[in-house]
Design a protein that fits this description.
Length: 154
């Protein structure tokens, strides 16, 4: 998105969704833009987020939808779970493609080698290195599970 920022694309797509009366898409994009604006004004001074930071906010929102959908499904509320899944699908269109298990394992193994980690005490360093390379292409929970697996030697 060299021409326009990700935030500008979200705003443009929101207007399109509103014109086409796509309520799920419009509501999801409105919520995402609100979360981005909130992140921009958080802290000491307001600032414009760059695309990587916007992806970070979108990733958090997607994680919230995923967790809510799982919780609703577990509570026997499929209609609410479906609504969360629909919002998640919209958000995922704007996120980088997620890494497969093999690719993610390779990233974690590189991070372990790079940090010289040898035990679970080193998990924080490995997580930091792995998340920097993954850059929003995998959920932190998946990364943590693989780091634990690699560091425990199982």
């Amino acid at each position: 998105m060299s021409e326009t920022s990700l935030k500008a694309k979200l705003q443009h797509d929101l207007h399109d969704a509103m014109r086409s009366k796509d309520k799920v898409r419009a509501g999801t994009l409105r919520m995402a833009l609100t979360a981005i604006t909130t992140a921009e004004v958080a802290g000491d001074e307001a600032r414009e987020l760059d695309d990587d930071e916007v992806v970070g906010v979108m990733t958090k929102e997607a994680k919230r939808r995923r967790e809510a959908a799982d919780a609703y499904a577990g509570a026997g509320r499929p209609e609410l779970a479906e609504a969360e899944q629909a919002e998640l699908a919209v958000l995922e269109e704007y996120l980088p493609a997620q890494l497969g298990d093999d690719d993610l394992l390779a990233v974690v193994e590189r991070a372990v080698a790079q940090t010289g980690a040898s035990s679970m005490r080193d998990m924080g360093q490995v997580m930091k290195a792995a998340q920097a390379e993954v850059a929003g292409r995998a959920d932190g929970g998946r990364i943590a599970a693989l780091v634990k697996k690699v560091l425990s030697g199982s």
